[in-house]
Design brief:
The protein has 453 residues and is of the alpha+beta class. It has 16 helices and 20 strands. 33% of the residues lie in helices and 21% in strands. Helix 2 packs parallel to helix 5 and helix 2 packs parallel to helix 10. The protein binds flavin-adenine dinucleotide.
Length: 453
């Protein structure tokens, strides 16, 4: 049964009906990771339960997508829905320096000929709800307003895990499942229980963000892009993501200590940063904040084990790097897709061992490793895309591949053979490029590429 909570006027589940006692696969969390896993396991014949504690659609941060998301959306069959929903099209990325210098946008299509060269800025409530509905369409039993209260992982020799749920009407039910997928996002249900979560000491960041009406948009003839704008003191950066409902998602990211400690409220700190970021000041000149500001911190971590006997992690429950290159949703989709194939293979073979369910994780980790290295470079004051690329223009395509998310094919780590020593040399020379210089260098007329130099 499909209900429309908006029409009902009260919080009602989007999907309801009796819960079965036994499943092949229970997926906890219906973000991009969980929605994808459930859809693909169900599509391939697995009896699947997808649950989320929130009513769908539900709010979530993370609106800017990476181009390589295209292929999972194509496999899920939702590209046609994207056209109907008319999400804002994202054609590239633009960097703006701390003194307000605007780089020419890096337009993906100038470097990437595949259909994925164009991507989207999405309202996450709509995207995640679309994936929830898609999982239902493919045959998964989908429940929102249904929370995992507890779970017991199976002992050796047992066939099923037990998952205790609180249903939308408050009733408790325990279901049994051969495979348990943790797609609970930053709740990281299994990793927290088993002590597998490790915060990245180099990325102790926080974010303060909100949604603005009447903020500046690109003129119609200009391609819409995600902007990364640095503050004057080079200690923080803003994201600027124009959405299809006319609003713009604007968030500040900086070290936890810098952003949230020091005596200012998040509201005052956001305002202060806004006043000290010329690029944002201009864009928000006539804008009105339409929501409360929200805060997130300590969101960057990794996990030391990604699969066990009959369980597997996907999306943020597996790990999260940083918002700067918009890789979160992409990695949630990709891990969801690969986990689903491993689950189906394991169920068919009657072998849902850690080895079988986690067979994809080494390759996944290798790709994530290259994105993480580029994130570390971004936050390194001795690094400048521009200065590096001027000396090493041969890496133009390689850098493009990293920025669009093409990290699971070819040789995406090649660039680091020269980039790592370049950063070390810069440190030894005491060169302070600072993150603000990524944009400033993009202004250089002698540069072989507008963004890259
Ligand atoms: C500040 C910030 C900015 C970001 N910006 C971007 C961006 O621009 N682009 C991008 O690609 N990514 C961005 N991200 C990352 C992105 O939001 C995540 O990577 C992505 O949402 C992960 O998807 P997921 O499916 O793993 O988890 P989620 O989308 O978090 O979904 C997890 C779901 O699990 C449910 N859940 C949790 N516990 C339970 C329980 N006990 N029972 C039932 N359900 C439960 C939750 O309700 C939730 O719906 C950003 C992240 C942060 C912190």
């Amino acid at each position: 049964m499909v209900l429309d909570p908006a029409q009902e006027g009260v919080k009602r589940p989007r999907m309801a009906g009796p819960v079965a006692d036994v499943y092949d696969c229970v997926v906890v969390g219906s973000g991009p990771g969980g929605g994808t896993t459930a859809a693909l396991v169900a599509q391939q014949g697995g009896k699947t339960l997808l649950i989320d504690r929130d009513p769908m659609p539900r709010f979530h941060v993370g609106e800017s997508l990476m181009p390589e998301t295209y292929w999972t959306f194509e496999r899920l069959g939702v590209l046609e829905d994207f056209r109907r929903i008319a999400f804002t099209r994202k054609y590239g990325v633009q960097f703006v320096s701390g003194d307000g210098k605007e780089s020419r946008a890096f337009v993906f299509a100038e470097h990437e000929s595949r259909a994925s060269a164009m991507t989207w800025h999405v309202e996450r409530a709509e995207l995640d709800c679309l994936l929830f509905d898609t999982a239902a369409k493919h045959g998964a039993d989908c429940r929102d307003m249904t929370r995992v209260l507890d779970f017991r992982l199976k002992e050796p020799g047992e066939e099923y895990h037990e998952v205790t749920l609180q249903l939308h009407d408050g009733q408790r039910r325990t279901v049994r499942t051969k495979v348990l997928v943790d797609a609970s996002g930053q709740q990281a249900m299994i990793a927290n229980r088993l002590g597998l979560k490790h915060v990245d000491p180099r990325l102790k960041k926080a974010a303060i963000w909100g949604y603005f009406a009447d903020a500046e948009r690109q003129p119609p003839e200009e391609p819409e892009v995600t902007c990364i704008l640095h503050t004057e003191d080079k200690q923080a950066w803003f994201w600027y993501i124009p959405l299809s409902d006319g609003r713009v998602s604007v968030g500040a990211v900086g070290d936890n200590e810098y952003l949230l400690k020091g005596g200012m409220t998040p509201e005052d700190k956001f305002q202060w940063l806004r006043e000290h970021c010329p690029g944002i000041q201009r864009r928000l000149r006539n804008a009105t904040l339409t929501t409360n500001l929200r805060v997130a911190k300590e969101f960057s971590y990794t996990t030391s084990q990604r699969a066990g006997d009959g369980w597997v992690l996907v999306g943020d429950a597996y790990g999260f790097i940083d918002p700067v290159y918009s890789s979160g949703v992409y990695l949630a989709l990709k891990s969801g897709e690969w986990a689903a194939d491993a689950i189906v293979d394991g169920l068919r073979a009657g072998d849902v061992s850690a080895e079988r369910l986690g067979r994809w994780t080494a390759e996944f980790d290798q790709g994530v490793h290259w994105i993480r290295k580029l994130v570390h470079a971004f936050y390194c004051n001795e690094f400048s895309f521009g200065a590096f690329m001027k000396q090493h223009p041969q890496y133009g395509q390689n850098l493009t591949d990293l920025l669009v998310g093409k990290v699971f094919e070819g040789d995406p780590g090649r660039i680091f053979q020269d980039l790592d020593p370049w950063i070390e040399k810069s440190k030894a020379l005491g060169r302070d490029c600072s993150m603000a210089d990524h944009g400033a260098m993009a202004m250089s007329e002698s540069a072989p590429d507008a963004f890259l130099c």
